[in-house]
Prior knowledge:
Blueprint: E1 8-14, E2 20-26, H1 30-43, E3 50-51, H2 53-62, H3 69-79, E4 87-88, H4 89-101, H5 105-116, E5 123-124, H6 126-135, H7 142-152, E6 160-161, H8 162-170
Antiparallel strand pairs: 1-2, 3-4, 5-6
Helix pairs in contact: 1-2, 1-4, 2-3, 5-8
Amino acid sequence: MYRKSPRPTTSSAPVRGGGQRKRTKYELTEEQRQEVREAFELFDTDKNGQIDAHEMKVAMRALGFDVRKEEVLKLLEEFDREGGGHIGLSEFSEIMSEKICERDPREEMVKAFQLFDDDNTGKISIKNLRRVARELGENMTDDELQAMIDEFDKDQDGEINEDEFISIMTNNEDL
């Protein structure tokens, strides 16, 4: 099921050129920290423990963040404490912790729903579910797929609408 993001705490962080800036520190789960570390290591192409703006943009995209070059350059400037045009894993982790914890869980669930609803009907049909199962390498019969739909189809129209999907994702029977 979908987990809510951990709560932030506040601390001070050094700013390039001296001084301190209040910064909110976000705590990730161990699984999230591992994903960030793996993305950093994967896109640290020269394996020097540092990533540049291009590597950072690709790593952020791999973690599900569609960032523009301008945003990446701004983040790099803010977090590159030595001014060399690179950041290490700790700085990348700090950036990604903040981004991950600022995600809106409902918005993320709506995006996931849209991945299923590739024909834009506003519903997940057995055809949509069959496609996703096939893409994931799951060999499921139509009866098994229909049983999945039937279990969560509150309005009994034979398909899963967005509210029913969010109910599934949040394990909330009331939606």
